[in-house]
Amino acid sequence: MQRLILCLCVVAGPAAADRAELTSLVDSPTAGLVNKGHYAVNVRLFADGGAVGRLHVGVLKRLSVGASFGGERLIGTGAVNWYPRVGGAARCRILEEGYTWPALVLGFDSQGVGPYRSQRYVKSKGIYLVLSKNYTSMLGELGVHAGVNLSREDADDGDWSAWLGIDKSLRFMALFAEYDLGRNYGLQDQGVGGGYLNLGGVWVVSPQLRVAYYLKNALESNHFGSQSIRELSVTYRGKFR
What we know:
Layout: H1 2-8, E1 38-46, E2 50-60, E3 63-72, E4 81-82, E5 87-95, E6 103-109, E7 113-117, E8 120-122, E9 126-137, E10 140-150, E11 161-169, E12 173-180, E13 196-204, E14 209-216, E15 229-239
Antiparallel strand pairs: 1-2, 1-15, 2-3, 3-4, 3-5, 5-6, 6-9, 7-8, 9-10, 10-11, 11-12, 12-13, 13-14, 14-15
C-alpha cells in the first residue's frame, strides 16, 4: 500500500499546463501523436544503471516516427551492456477523435523496455492498435485507452496481448494507470494469471519539460520475478524552427 501511495503523490510546482497530446502511459501507447513539426526526446532510467533514449518526430498531421536505443550499467561500474539494436517506431492516426467516438491509431514499436535478460527485455509492443477517448472532468481531463498488440519478440510465446489504461490531468500534474493482460509471456501455460498493473505520475515542470515516476507491476504478480519495479522518465518537447 505504501508503494501505491508513493506513486500517486506528485509534487506540483509553478508551471504552465502542457497542452501536447499524451502519447503513452507507462509502457503502453495512447492514440496521441507528436504534433507536426514538433519533436519529443525522452530518457527513461531503470534498474542496474540502465537508460533508454527515444526520439519521436511529427512528420505529418497524422503520422509520427521515432527511434530509440539504450543499455545497462551506463551509471555504475563494469562494461556498458548496450542493447543489441536500435529500435524503430511509427504511428498513424486512422481516425480522429470526435464527440462520441475515440481516436484510433495504428502503430509499430520494436523497442523493448528495461534490463536485457535471456535474449530480450520487457517485450516491445510490436504492431498495435489503440483507441483513446478524452472527457472533460473536474480539475482537468480524463482519458480512457484500450489497445491490442502482437509483439515482435515471439520466441517463447507468440500470442497477442491487450491493455486498458486511464489518465487524469490535474493542471500541473497527471496520474495514470494501465493493466496489461500479459498474454504473450507464457505464464498462462503455467496455470497462473499473466496480467500486471503499472502506475505512474507526471509533474509538468514547464510546457516543454515533464518528469514522470513509474511503479511497474504494482501488485507484484508473476511478472518480473514477482517484484515491483521503480523507474524515472524525463521528456522534453520542442518545435523545429
